[in-house]
Structure formats: structure tokens, C-alpha cells
Specification:
heterodimer, A: 110 residues, mainly beta, 6-stranded mixed sheet, 3-stranded antiparallel sheet, globular, B: 111 residues
């Protein structure tokens, strides 16, 4: 069974502080991992996916197969980063069922 | 193309009634997904389609739930004999490359 675990429901950081949103997964095989974000009053949207290896809005995430983790990081938090963040997992290529974690609310304190 | 659209945005119904939600995906997307989301939880997978074929349905989904995508374009999700526990946001998403594009959701309240 595929499973995504986000251990923190709420993470509060001060503006300018580093951010790390944790995500661990369970999957038999080679998964594709994603981070989705939902800003206030907006629809859920993709932030980044591990195969693209891009940095989006200053965020990066590295897939660690040994630790089965895909933590989201940003060196300096901005107020506009405040949102709900969901880690998600799919089969190879992302063309299968996509399983989401429960989400972490990031609150950036000015 | 305005993205994924869902209708209605809000539905209030009495327990025992049937409800139907519609999703119009982005036109060139061949995959369509339905999720349910309750307060404090992430999107919970319900089912997904590739074109008109329903490829997977959650084992957690009762037989009261059914989804169709008759011509590989729009999709409907029907809930029969609604229960209070069905109250949730129902999200639709479409995809062609693995990235999911979500609609704004249909919020169901069962009284």
C-alpha cells in the first residue's frame, strides 16, 4: 500500500528563518513524489515534483530513497509562503493513483 | 480554457437524498481524478479515469458512490442515499503529464 506521512499539522516560523516541511512515504518500487500547495482562497496547485529537480519560489526537495523521505526546504521564509502544503506520491511517471498526506500548515510570522 | 471547473460549488441536502457533482477537466487531459477532503485532512483518493475507463476505485468507497466519464470528457460523481458522514469537499483534478490540475471543489453538506 502506498502511504504518505506528514508528521506536523502546523509549523510556525519567523520571517527570514529556514523552513523544513517533513514528508515520509511508503511505496513498493520507484515512486514519483510531489509537493502541492494551497494558498488562502485558492485551489490546490503543484509546487514541485522530484523529477524536475527545480527550485520553485525558493523551495527545494530532495528524494532520499534510503530514508524514504521527501522533505521540503526553503532557506529564508517569506510571509507569502504561509499556506497548506501537501506531500503526494504516485507510481513511476505520475500516471497512476496519487496519494496525499494530511498536510502541514505553514505559518510565517512577520 | 479556464481550467478545471466543478458544479455545483455548494450543495446542501437532506440525509437519504441523492446528489450528483459534475467535473469538466482541461480539454486535452486524458486523466481525471476524484478526491474527498474533510477538515484537517488531505485529499482522500476516490477514483480515477483514463479517458472513459475507470482504472481504480478506492476500497474505502461504499457502493453508494459511483462515478462516470461517458465520453472521456466531463465526469459525474453520484452519491446515493446520502449520510451525514458524506459531508465534505469533493475535489476533481485532471492531468496529462502527471501534474494534477484541481478544480475549486464542490462542498456537500448533509443535514
Amino acid at each position: 500500500a502506498q502511504r504518505v506521512t506528514q508528521p506536523e499539522k502546523l509549523l510556525s516560523v519567523f520571517k527570514g528563518a529556514p523552513v523544513e516541511l517533513k514528508c515520509n512515504y511508503s511505496y513498493s518500487g520507484s515512486p514519483e513524489l510531489f509537493w502541492y500547495v494551497q494558498y488562502s482562497r485558492q485551489r490546490l496547485q503543484l509546487l514541485l515534483r522530484h523529477i524536475s529537480r527545480e527550485s520553485i519560489k525558493g523551495f527545494t526537495a530532495d528524494l532520499n530513497k534510503g530514508e524514504t523521505s521527501f522533505h521540503l526546504k526553503k532557506p529564508f521564509a517569506q510571509e507569502e509562503d504561509s499556506a497548506m502544503y501537501y506531500c503526494a506520491l504516485s507510481g513511476p511517471g505520475g500516471y497512476q493513483k496519487v496519494t496525499f498526506g494530511i498536510g502541514t500548515k505553514l505559518q510565517v510570522i512577520p | 480554457d479556464t481550467g478545471v471547473s466543478q458544479d455545483p460549488r455548494h450543495k446542501i441536502t437532506k440525509r437519504g437524498q441523492n446528489v450528483t457533482f459534475r467535473c469538466d477537466p482541461i480539454s486535452e487531459h486524458n486523466r481525471l481524478y476524484w478526491y474527498r477532503q474533510t477538515l484537517g485532512q488531505g485529499p482522500e483518493f476516490l477514483t480515477y479515469f483514463q479517458n472513459e475507463a475507470q482504472l481504480e476505485k478506492s476500497r474505502l468507497l461504499s457502493d453508494r458512490f459511483s462515478a462516470e466519464r461517458p465520453k472521456g470528457s466531463f465526469s459525474t460523481l453520484e452519491i446515493q442515499r446520502t449520510e451525514q458522514g458524506d459531508s465534505a469537499m469533493y475535489l476533481c483534478a485532471s492531468s496529462s503529464t502527471g501534474e494534477l490540475f484541481f478544480g475549486e471543489g464542490s462542498r456537500l453538506t448533509v443535514l
